[in-house]
Batch of 2 targets.
Target 1
Amino acid sequence: MPYALEQLDTPFVAVDVDIVEDNLRRMQQQAEAAGLKLRPHTKTHKQPGLAQRQVELGAHGITVAKLDEAEVMLKAGLTDILIAYPLVGRAKAHRLALLMTRGLEPTISLDSLEALKTVALAGQLAGRSVNVLAEVDTGFHRCGLNGSALVELALTIHGTPGVRFGGLMSFAGHISGHRDVDRITRLIDEEDGMMHDLVRQITAHHVPVDDVSVGGTILSHHLQRLRTATEVRPGIYIFNDMGIVTAHAATIDQCAARVWATIVSQPEAHRLVLDSGSKMLSTDGPIDGCYGHIVEHPDWRIVRLSEEHAVVELPPNAAPAAIGSLVSIIPNHICTVMNLQNTVTAVRQGSVVASWPIMARGGTQ
Ligand SMILES: Cc1ncc(COP(=O)(O)O)c(C=O)c1O
């Protein structure tokens, strides 16, 4: 017998399964319409069941960041996995090789000779070569190379036994945080141009570039602009969040995951406290000074978090709030919120339908 969401103890995360399904189908259709492979980043949901659904709907494989996450996904039967993170060191080589002997068909992105050595050792240990993508820095300035250093790395990967040069990988993290769509599309066009140039330079050495893999959700809202990519890796699109809404890449109605919280105190007319602190909402940067969007009261502002308290500022002349009543919050960044949960509550039309364990949470290695 389904029961109403409001009967649950707070705080908790609820995920609307119909919105999830719509989000998955829409992105799959958009990728297909643009002639691109979809390889969703599963760091957002960290749940093998949802990864399987993404593949069922047509995804060409999945992305993870860590071997811990790859192991959880592999146990559930997902074998075609891009580990979009440089693996460095002998321990990682041995672990990657072990997962390969259990059926993992990995692709690894990297940007250094040390990481290349690690992956080549794994290939040797497992007795088959590993597909490798050279990571390009297109402006986010995290990992990745560009220009002649990138081309040199690509040629070195191509000439290294135990690995196969599969192409290029980038993550345009620098486009998040912008609201101006013209600015966002300009940055996407710049990235596309860089990838195009690098492909031209590498193929001039008679080295084929099979795949150009780009991410994430904001970029994937503009797939028609991409001339060079062969594959996209959005992650957040499955749930969406305020970061994606702010970039005009989703609407509030397309946000599938909310933190439900109780008003536990109202010490002053203009200030109240919710029971969803940083242990629920995470401390990821505020947007416009707020740590999430309160759906029922869009003019209330979550201005401060302690571990167990969210301090909310009310507008002048706000009606008194009822201590004990519930509100729901769309987080700024859903990936970090998911990583803090043991389980999330799946709901359909306001009724609880399941409890989903976040099986790959906390997988840091
Ligand atoms: C390498 C990489 N690819 C893809 C993604 C997915 O992007 P998004 O979270 O914007 O959907 C991420 C997110 O952090 C990432 O780090």
Target 2
Amino acid sequence: MRAAVFHGAHDIRVESVPEPGEPGPGEVLLRPYWCGICGTDLHEYAVGPIVIPTEPHPLTSARAPQILGHEFSGEVAAVGPGVHGLRVGERVSVMPILTCGNCYFCRRGLGHLCVSMGCIGLSFDWGAIAELAIVPARNVTPIPDSMTEIQGALVEPTAVAAYGVDSARVRPGESVLISGAGPIGVLAALYAEALGAAVYISEVNPIRAELARSLAIGEVLDPSAIDVSAHLRDRTGGIGVDAVVECSGNERALHAGFAAVRSAGRITQTGLFTKPASIDPMALAQREITYNGTWCYPLNDWPRIIDLIARKGIPVQKVVTAQIGAEDLVEKGFETLLSPTGNEVKVLVNAR
Ligand SMILES: [Zn+2]
Ligand SMILES: [Zn+2]
């Protein structure tokens, strides 16, 4: 079968690999539909391997070369022995994280912090940018008829975004600044708006700002043109916003968030920084600001996120700016997403 295989930095090959065969007990064989390329994949391509193991992974024994793809929807092609509640032909969305079930964190329902965490498409025998993939049945949730396969592939980044907004304890009627209008920022804005919050989005990149503006869910601010925190204090009677969800991983945006949030407000760090940044502990103390981080999502959030997208018709698909075939993965996917002049926000791949 055809698959996109990571061999090393700047070395992803779309090549022929052996098919997975029949699923074992507790497993399902999927035919992936769409799969998102995410920041982690880009990092692996640019400077990896980082997450992709070069020695056998402690949980899964997988190691490079690795079939990529972890944000995906698919169709059930076969179910293994002992699998209940999934039928051949059913459309599903996949939660890609694999956990040991036994460590301190797993035993406390915090599997996303598992000490030996693995991930489909990064540290597992199979990935979604392939014609077929075997995954554990417990990672698979059916999607309703009203949900498209593209939306099914966006449950994963939506779960990341939702966790950021939830961690900032955003409530209906509150105001929230989302800094960064990449895929996670846009999805966080859509989720916060669905919760009933007043949403503000800051973004310097004009293409991304335009995409955010097209959603018509809140004011989109250009931090290179205006003082975002002064503007937001102005909008909130001089007080500041109730919450900030930092989705850019940019130090200036973080500082703007501190300046924009009200006293006793909350800032959640969802965007990933690649280097240390400064914060002002005096502001935390004096203004009783809460600053916390989020990693991935609660692993049991798939049914809720799927229901929310389907029932409220949240247009998560609007983050998608390109849909490509596997043959274009490197050129139109990785290279374009990493290019400083590239215009893409979210690229989905289909290896069928
Ligand atoms: Zn990802
Ligand atoms: Zn664990």
